[in-house]
Design goal:
251 residues; alpha/beta; 2 domains; six-stranded mixed beta sheet; 10% strand; elongated
């Protein structure tokens, strides 16, 4: 998952810099503008500081190619579910002003039905799984804009409730996989677990992380290190070269 941070300029209309009171849920939206890009929607939020007639923003925007732009820090409030009236469910489980306790995710889409590309959909799965895991939540904490204010948003999921249920089931399945990897010890590699802690105090794993931080070793992609695979002669040569270069640069 590649998140590009392009934070909005602090202003009253899209980034008021008010802290969230808590994180109680994650709200999925559509941008309502077919084939528009993530950066274009981010720039729309940015421009509200100059127009000064609309309050709107979100924490994340997912583009048609699956790119993710972060517009606001997660601990700041976004204007994404403001309304004069809220559903009973939202009032009960969130607050009387759900903006102050939810993180908003905008999705780009192909048409007025709200159909997403496969790339957008996959990034939405990855981002919501990441957020649920980070804040110790699950699919019960996922909301559509529609669930909070009756607004026709995210239209694809609103009109296809079976797809929304399928999406939430996917999130729970991914979270189960995350739980199964709870023994992971490395800060960077998901496949380094307790079984690789041969010295019994975590130092062996922290040494791998330190070498990675110094640029002396690398993973094999997708946050994997392949700790049980034998290195090739080429990989050994690369590591030796990096070590020599590191020593010389620190003399």
């Amino acid at each position: 998952m590649n998140i590009k941070e392009k934070l909005l300029t602090p202003n009253n209309y899209s980034r008021p810099q008010r802290n969230l009171t808590d994180v109680l849920g994650f709200v999925v939206h559509w941008v309502g503008n077919p084939k528009s890009t993530a950066i274009a929607n981010r720039n729309y939020f940015e421009g509200l500081k100059d127009s000064q007639d609309t309050y709107a923003s979100a924490h994340y925007i997912i583009g048609l190619d699956g790119e993710i732009i972060q517009c606001l820090p997660e601990n700041e409030m976004a204007y994404h579910v403001g309304s004069e009236n809220y559903t009973d469910q939202a009032l009960k489980l969130l607050s009387s002003y759900p903006n102050n306790c939810t993180i908003g995710i905008e999705c780009c889409h192909l048409d007025w039905d709200g159909k997403m590309t496969d790339e957008t959909y996959q990034s939405l799965i990855e981002l919501t799984t990441y957020l649920c895991d980070k804040y110790n939540k699950n699919s019960e904490n996922l909301w559509l804009h529609y669930d909070i204010t009756w607004k026709d948003c995210h239209r694809w999921f609103v009109n296809n409730p079976d797809e929304w249920k399928k999406f939430k089931d996917k999130i729970d399945n991914y979270l189960k996989e995350v739980d199964d990897m709870a023994e992971q010890m490395s800060k960077y590699f998901v496949d380094i677990t307790e079984k690789h802690d041969w010295d019994g105090n975590g130092e062996a794993v922290s040494n791998v992380d330190w070498l990675y931080e110094q640029g002396l070793i690398s993973g094999v992609g997708n946050d994997k290190f392949a700790p049980d695979r034998s290195p090739t002669r080429y990989e050994l040569a690369q590591v030796m070269y990096r070590i020599i270069e590191y020593i010389e640069s620190n003399q």
